[in-house]
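Narrative summary of target 7.
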Amino acid sequence: MSKTTTAAPVRAATAPEAISRAELEALQLERLQWTVHHAWEHVPLYRRKFADAGVTPDDIRSLDDVRRLPFTTKEDLRETYPFGMFAVPMEQVRRIHASSGTTGRPTVVGYTEGDLSRWASLVARSLGAAGITAGMRVHNAYGYGLFTGGLGAHAGIEALGATVIPMSGGQTARQVQLIRDFEPAAILCTPSYLLTIADAIEAAGMDPRATSLRVAVLGAEPWTNEMRSEIERRLAIDAVDIYGLSEVMGPGVASESVLTKDGPHIWEDHFLPEAIDGATGERVADGELGELVFTSLTKEAFPVIRYRTRDLTRLLPGTAYPAMRRMEKITGRNDDMIILRGVNLFPTQIEELVMGIETLTPHFVLELTKHGRMDCMTVRIERHPALERSVCEAAAKVLQQRIKVHIGTTVDVELEEPGALPRSEGKYKRVYDNR
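Modeled conformation, tokenized:
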């Protein structure tokens, strides 16, 4: 099958803050029809899946017809490893990224020159929404390499006209030194790592609220509004959520506005979102909790059709960008859910309760074990270094009670000494399942 292809239809669109919903939907349909034809013509897996579903590209006459198309899953990406999902010849691929592959074959994604340009533009749009402007110095502590975060953010910073400080993750003492010496106005990293940096700033004898930082663009892991409040309090900054995943593009699929901080706006001129019932696959109405599904609209090398992200959210009306729907902050994934003695819970629910008790620190992990036939969970949390142990023990008992009342299950809470738990240098591992 030939992979000679035409470029994505990316005619100039109205600015995202000014476009009307009618204009947007007309643009989406044009781009959806191109994407479906492109995937069907050049990706054997999609041709087969379309045939199994009894649908052809010519059947897509409205945006609602996307429901007729089959879902794409991570298993499809692993089945076609490494390059079977690419829709252009390899000589047109300018960059390859991949997941870590810790749970199986890594998922591999590719980008044409046009894809990289659009990606940089969307990250720049996202950073602009967060309040970053041309000329600012931006400390980029997302990991570089095969992970999409570092290089994706890097290109967006440059496209915006800001100055990138390409630190990458890790070397926390070095992070603190460069923040002190280079005086960046903004930082990009995971929310848990920013708290690690704040701890290191304090350990170096500095006040985290007195740095040059004014805004943090945080993503790559679920985080709550309670964690946002903690970060903003400790560092005297605006903390803004950015969303993305490598299978759909990378960072910059959606981003919050610093003016509203009410959930990331999805850049719907490039991505068509849906929310579905994870069990039935049926679409749920806007405002209802569902699994987030994306269809790319302008990707050339790696188009995705109805990709199941496993992220749980609600689709909501736009605010800062009225035509672009928002997504509620991701607080969990289908595959993050813990079932503990018949109770379903997410790590972010524990985080919300921890952040609501001022005498507790945000440094905790969840350990799952089995005693006989019974599943058990222990919350291991570091005590506050500035408080007496008795005060921290009382706070731990309060946390245990609140988990029982608000989540409906009994857990153990164990206090650890300051610095005893591992620190995040990227995505934080919150759950240790030893069952």
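The first helix runs from residue 21 to 42.
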